[in-house]
Amino acid sequence: MNQLLSERILNMATSATLAMAAKARELRGEGKDIIGLSLGEPDFNTPDFIKNAAKQAIDDNYNSYTPVDGYSELKQAIITKFQRDNNLTYTPEQIVVSTGAKQCLANVALVLLNKGDEVILPCPYWVSYSDIVKLSEGTPVEVKTSISTDFKMTPEQLEAAITPNTKMIWFSSPCNPSGSVYSKRELRALADVLQKHPQIYVVSDEIYEHINFGGGHASMAQFEDMYERTITVNGVSKAFAMTGWRIGFLGAPKAIARACNKMQGQITSGANCIAQRAVITALNESPKKVQYMVDEFKIRRDLILNLLNGIDGFSCNVPEGAFYVFPDVSALFGKTFNGVLVSNATDLSMYLLEEALVATVTGDAFGNPNCLRISYAASQEQIIEAVSRIKKALEG
Ligand code: PMP
Ligand code: GLU
After folding, report:
1. Which of 43, 102, 127, 360 to mutate to test the pocket of ligand 2 (most atoms within 8 A of CB)?
2. Quick check: 90 and 238 in contact, CB under 8 A?
3. Ligand 1 centroid – CA 200 distance (Å)
């Protein structure tokens, strides 16, 4: 019998973050008081100055298809942003605006990978990297890290993972899900390894750039010798609380940007016109304008770390950025709580959902089965209540 669905989709995992968010929504619909700490989505409203720009764009009749790679004014705002915040110089032909950073990543994978090309993914990695690579017929190569190195890949690990088939390395800093931030020195040490392997490209996902509690964001492309083989991906979802507006962008060598433009031209065309106009306003402002959200995330980080450290079996690194904690919970595996055996992080995440009514995401989805990802993009009251419920469920 003919199979309805393609091997491509049958082999793809459902996004665990989105699946957990949907499950939490469903349970809430049944009247359950779920606290959602699963989705990486700021709980702030999009700032008024950005909303006003969108309203103006509607009144100004921005309603037509945009250039596939974005309005030229937006590309100019992105160029200014890269120069101002990252000391990176790009020309308009090197910039592509897409429907979220997710589409930027998908474009890059689709235009650079051939069957069997290997992509090194330091674990934990953001949930969609692995499936986007597989969709593009690439082979993910996971490099395991642990809490003992703050979940960062060492130069020795990178060297050991490289084979003649290695095409790219993908990583995020600040990292979703560990919150780890690579310093300039650490990036340089990785770049030194790559010097010996000039065929390898780097995807530097910097979408959490501004949500950095220690300051000092470093970009791989800042190194002169890496600039020509780095694709810098960024977007407005996180720092500007604009997840639903769906705008991301990349800066890349011209040939890669041109290929992404071609890919996007056949799949989605340009990103939403109103959202693009609003993002021009967002990026032309100083990032200081949205610092109040970062300040609040830092307060919440300290709060949740303090509370989680009071739970037996939770072992946390100190995340320096993004809005996640990624506790190692392996000390709890094999134990029974309220008659439920917890054998792994997925069991624990399901148990906490059902017993504590708190939604988290299993570390499995991020390539680290010892951990649990908890998003603290929630109010302080919700965080306090959620951790108290988790504690109670694990004491029972
Ligand atoms: N990269 C990372 C590390 C993320 O956490 C996200 C969150 N969705 C994305 C990319 C994609 O962001 P978006 O498509 O909303 O721009
Ligand atoms: N990046 C967010 C997360 O990791 C949003 C969900 C998604 O796009 O998968 O939760």
Report:
1. 127
2. no
3. 23
